[in-house]
Amino acid sequence: MDAVFWIVLGVVLAVAEIFTATLFVLMFAVGAFAAAGAAALGAPVAVQAVVFAAVSALTVLAARPVIRRHRQSALESGDTAFGIEAIEGSTALVLEQVDSDRGMVKIDGEVWTARAYDATQVLAPGERVQVIQVKGAVALVWRDVATPVELPEAER
Question: Mind giving me the DSSP string for the chain?
Answer without folding.
Answer: -HHHHHHHHHHHHHHHHHHH-SSHHHHHHHHHHHHHHHHHTT--HHHHHHHHHHHHHHHHHHHHHHHHHHHS-HHHHTPPP-THHHHTT-EEEEEE-B-SS--EEEETTEEEEEEESSTT--B-TT-EEEEEEEETTEEEEEE-SSPP-PPPGGG-
